[in-house]
Amino acid sequence: MAKIPTRITVIGYGNVGKGVCEAVNRNEDMRLVGIISRRGADDVRRAAGSMQAFSDVAIFSPKNFMNPSNQVRLNEITDVAILCGGSKQDLFSKEDDPNRYKGQGPFYAQFFNTVDSFDTHSRIPDYFSVIDEIADKFGHVSVISAGWDPGTFSLERVLANAFVPGSKNYTFWGPGVSQGHSDAVRRIPGVRDARQYTLPVDDAIRQVRAGKNPELKAGQKHTRLVYVVLENNDPKERERVKAEIVGMPNYFTGYNTEVRFISEGEMRGDHSAYPHGGFVLTSGNTGRGNKALIEYRNEWASNPEATASILVACARACYRLRQEKRSGAFTMLDIPAAYLSPQSRETLLKEWM
Ligand SMILES: NC(=O)c1ccc[n+]([C@@H]2O[C@H](COP(=O)([O-])OP(=O)(O)OC[C@H]3O[C@@H](n4cnc5c(N)ncnc54)[C@H](OP(=O)(O)O)[C@@H]3O)[C@@H](O)[C@H]2O)c1
């Protein structure tokens, strides 16, 4: 008998939101039933272009969703809502009153089981406790901060640390595009477009792999390569913009940064994808000093599609947890691997152990 698919509503139709729609198509046990976007149905259809027809998908703006009959309708057809808004401004923000929170995470946890990829690491404990309270109160499961970092990288760090106590853990990101750094460069006056690639330092990785357990500052683990399109590409302007980039505190100071100036056509042709990836390396000893090295690597040609694929697997787990009458917030650390998998328990035991 065919399985009943898990019904997904996507909230926020950006890069990750589009990726979720694609990932749902690649999973036979998933079906896209709804989209909520601040840009409304026409804009979503336009942005999707020929990629997807969305003929039997309910598309709402948040304003339409406030209409109680629409809320009931979407609620009835949705098993899990995947929140794809940005971490900085959309998912979680604190109002002036410290006891009140707003944002898509706390809001939609009242209506749906949810999955999100909130990635502001320092605020995860705070976000977890706010969502935990709301999801529990409304009888929902909310899987927060899923994706690859936080997400699968967190899982790797925790597993390796549990297996090799006293080990040292290193996370290297890249080669890949950092959207935060690219946005920061785009805010410099005179910059028309920019793409920032984070590159891991090979020598640092070699030292870790050799079991040397080096102490590494951030700038010794990664370098930065920036491609810039200028409004006015003359030598003086290049010098000024380059100086602003390499001297930008919190983003580029302390790093070896290379800046390359290119044309708009080169940017469009060579830098329109969002590749990313990285390594989690754990180095330590077992027994009386036998070397132990655990290495986990991701290489994603599309960061948003990769993140989206993980979110969809988490939606499967989210719904299974809810079917067990669980409620509250969960992270990928709390989810059994079998719950993420589309394979039956029997197949997992026979073929994947
Ligand atoms: N955990 C991880 O490993 C991981 C990895 C990658 C990303 N992330 C997280 O995922 C978040 C979303 O990333 P993203 O790449 O999807 O960001 P994005 O493309 O900027 O989308 C964020 C939101 O902006 C709005 N938006 C998108 N395109 C727009 C446009 N053309 N005009 C106006 N509004 C637009 C969308 O909301 P509306 O549809 O409502 O307008 C969308 O939900 C990131 O902030 C990050 O926190 C996590």
Q: In words, what does this structure look like?
A:
The two termini are 26 Å apart. The protein has 16 helices and 16 strands. Strand 12 (222-230), helix 12 and strand 13 form a beta-alpha-beta unit. It has helices at residues 15-25, 40-48, 62-65, 68-77, 87-91, 104-108, 124-137, 152-163, 179-186, 202-209, 218-221, 235-246, 264-270, 303-323, 337-340, 345-352; strands at 6-11, 30-36, 58-60, 80-83, 93-94, 101-102, 113-116, 141-143, 168-173, 176-177, 191-200, 222-230, 257-261, 276-286, 290-300, 328-330. It has 353 residues and is an alpha/beta fold. The mean pLDDT is 95. The structure holds NADP nicotinamide-adenine-dinucleotide phosphate. NADP nicotinamide-adenine-dinucleotide phosphate binds at residues 12-17, 37-39, 84-87, 90, 117, 119, 147-151, 303-304, 307.
Strand percentage lies at 15-25%
* Lateral arrangement of strands in the main beta sheet: 3-2-1-4-7-8-16
Mean pLDDT: 95
- Principal-axis shape: globular
Helix content bin: 40-55%
N- to C-terminal distance: 26 Å
Got a strand count?
16
Could you give a short account of the major beta sheet?
Answer: 7 strands, parallel
* Ligands bound to this protein structure: NADP nicotinamide-adenine-dinucleotide phosphate
The radius of gyration over CA amounts to: 22 Å
Separate helix tally: 16
